[in-house]
Here is the input.
Amino acid sequence: MRTRLLDDPRDFLDATLELRAADPVRTNVIGSVAIGVVEGASYDAESWFVVEDDAGAVVGAAVWTAPYRLLASPMDDDAAHSLGLAARERSAQIGVAIPGVVGPAGVAEVTAAALGGVWRTSMAERLLVLHDYLRPSPVPGAGRPATEADLPLLVAWHTQFVADAGVTEHDTEASIRRRLPALRIWEVDGTPVAYAGHSPVVSTPSGAVGRIGPVFTTRDQRGRGYGTAITAVVVEALLPVTSAVMLYTDDANPTSNHVYENLGFVHEDDMVELTPVESAS
Here is the structure.
């Protein structure tokens, strides 16, 4: 087992195509991150890992775009151990600590163990996949595409979303501007109350997968169905151009889980986010 570090996201997408085609949902994030960089996203440092068995077959992959966490695909324990050692070497090489590991529970734990140190579970997530879409009951207002004029509002909202979710964000304005065509806003009587979007659609020979997120409703407008409504708008935009629609949600948030289940999303798998104890807040 060996882990190779690639320099270019295009090479990474090519090298992992067969792996991603075999499991397009659970490898969606690593694919969408790589596509985002190809399309212009930039980070403090980028690392593209491909894990191969002794015969040279790709059996795992991971992406680390600092300052974000290391994102790992499904793989067996030997592959995860190899990944962790390679990520540890990369971290030392560039002088940047890996702030966390995200992946299927067993993969994340073995990778983190190879990285060294003590880790804690900072979040457990559900991977949800849309089965039979259930259109929600009507609520006041309507959805519309986001425009350049919405940028200051969306930056403020996304900053609040990041704070509420306790996640990392990098160059928020540039990120929102780049994703503007994929964002939708729900308005009531001309007043924006919620927004949602999706990551780049990831295509493989087995189909195209769209991943919804983020979804945000202003605090004073929550509990009125607007989050469900704007999520449905994004779902309906993705359905004609994808073979699967997915999202991740916090396992500890029954409200959002219920919202997505009512739209027809089904719990398919579990993911875990591990954080080094010494860097935990």
